[in-house]
Amino acid sequence: MAFRVGKNGYDLWPECRDRGLAIIQYDPMNDIDLSQQDVDEPKDQWGMLQGTQRTSLKRFVYEMESGDTIYVKSGPKIVCKGEIKSDYVFNSKNPITHDGVSWQHQRKVSWVRGLPEVENPTNQNIVTVKPLMTADVNAIERQYSSKAKQDSRYATDSDIEGIRYEIITMTVSRSRRLRDKAFQRAKGICAVCERDFTKLLSGRGIRVLQVHHKRMLSKTESETQTRLEDLVVVCANCHLLLHLDVKKPLTVPQLKKCLIQTTDE
Questions:
Q1: What per-residue confidence (pLDDT) applies to 20?
Q2: Sign of the torsion angle spanned by Cα atoms 118, 144, 134, 89
Q3: Which own/partner pairs from 144-151 qualify as long-range (CB within 8 Å, at least 24 positions apart)?
Q4: Would you say 22 and 84 are in contact if contact means Cβ atoms under 8 Å apart?
Q5: Tens of pLDDT along 93-151?
Q6: What's the predicted TM-score (pTM) here?
Q7: Across the chain, what does the average pLDDT equal?
Q8: In Å, what is the CA distance from 135 to each residue of 138, 185, 220?
Q9: DSSP code of 200?
Q10: Quick check: is 169 in a domain?
Q11: Residues 44 and 140 in one domain
Q12: Range of the domain at 251
């Protein structure tokens, strides 16, 4: 998907990236909340769209689902990817605008930061919402994998984390390799509440699991060596509880003790 006004027009992608959004807009559909309309309604406005516009809007509103992967294209390049985090939303006050017109049709997206640009296998500089064939997706992911393997910072059971890059804000690098190893070791079980999320929603429950650093990475002043033993996998609720006090987070044993005491009461 390309976030651009026309084929070579104004690029809205930087704002979409910063706000965690995917957006789409066509003039005949201004101010129309499609979540309140039947499919193909209102017919007059749908009829005013060009064929590719109509197809793109329908895919965006009706076919995309939470959990789907979305790739951002810019001409011959794929510049980013993300995971869709919401159903279609109509936002008449969306701050992303062009020529005074708010782009009202949107979905929330968790964009993956720091990915390199890779070649667009479709090689099409067209502004449409296009579902990718499995072969195209595999081609993109192979490029990501190849470039990751070329990164000399990758290690076996430990990696350098906490390297800061000045972009717009200060961000802290985290090792995807260690994250994956931590998830494999956890086997779908939260280290705090000990719930087995592989048994929830036919295994989809594992998507609520997150990696928690026993030592707060954001408090380090420079890059630091992180070991697999420094990581623990917890569910989203327990992760939030661990960090309720941002200055003095709880340890996993402390929170487990609190939960046991609450259960006993």
A1: 94
A2: negative
A3: 144/115, 144/116, 144/118, 147/116, 147/118, 148/176
A4: yes
A5: 888 888 888 899 999 999 998 888 999 887 665 567 878 878 888 888 898 888 877 76
A6: 0.54
A7: 84
A8: 5, 31, 42
A9: S
A10: yes
A11: yes
A12: 158-264
